[in-house]
Amino acid sequence: MIKTLLAFSTAVLFLTTAGYGEEEHPTHWDYETHGPSCWGEFAQECQKGHLQSPINIESHKSVPLKGSLSLKMNEDIHTTADVVDNGHAIQVNVKNGGKLILDGREYTLVQFHFHGHSEHTIDGKQYALEGHLVHKSADGHLAVVGIMFNEGKNNPVLDNVLGGIGRTIRIDPQDLLPNDKKHYYHYIGSLTTPPCTEGVQWYVLKAPMTASKDQIADMRAHYDHNFRPVQPASSIKLESK
Ligand SMILES: [Zn+2]
User: Fold this and answer.
1) What is the pTM of this model?
2) Residue 217: inside a domain, yes or no?
3) Which domain holds residue 172?
4) HEC per residue, the chain
5) Active site includes 222?
6) 102 and 80, same structural domain?
7) Residues 25, 28, 34, 88: which is the catalytic one?
8) Distance, CA 113 to ligand 1 centroid (Å)?
9) What is the pLDDT of residues 48-102, one digit of tens each?
């Protein structure tokens, strides 16, 4: 009887948590039963948008980027951050993030999170993991830097993140970035999760980072299928530098 009661109260707790803040939709989006093909039920833009992310980046179709849209990253700030499991990904909420300057507009790093397989593909190649550094400007514009990971050497930052879930850690987001930050693909797309809001400035760095086989397995033990399939890119202008 006690067992039954416990199971029942757990189920109630789960339903309450899942439904919180989602009054119009009693269920919540995910990557399984309520996966990407029905995200339109949660947010129209996911289904009806024309600048949806992620995309397959076709390198030969990219045009040279105008010099004015250069990416200047000042992420080298040691900061404290809360590592959370947000129900869709392992996410690091930074307290005092670095800054990006795009065309004179300043964006502050708000959080970064990881996808258990890459969301963007480059010339059809899917990478082992993808990290997204989400930056926001004072007037609400979003810029996301995408970092690809290949299987290879152990990555100390990932150890820090994976070992810190549920805790506050000290971290330098700069350590997450490759040495070469000058070469990247840029396009205007969307958030890759509901509400799939468009107008997001994407910067996918060309130089990949590495993560060890164990780290990739560890990340996938939390989230293996948290990647949205690539979206039609016909109306997207892809630039590169
Ligand atoms: Zn993401």
Assistant:
1) 0.86
2) yes
3) 43-240
4) CHHHHHHHHHHHHHHHHHHCCCCCCCCCCCCCCCCHHHHHHCCHHHHHCCCCCCCEECHHHCEECCHHHCEEEECCCCEEEEEEECCCCEEEEECCCCEEEECCEEEEEEEEEEECCCCCEECCEECCEEEEEEEEECCCCEEEEEEEEEECCCCHHHHHHHCCCCCEEEECHHHHCCCCCCCEEEEEEECCCCCCCEEEEEEEECCCEEECHHHHHHHHHHCCCCCCCCCCCCCCCCEEC
5) no
6) yes
7) 88
8) 6
9) 999 999 999 999 999 998 764 455 555 556 778 999 999 999 999 998 778 888 8
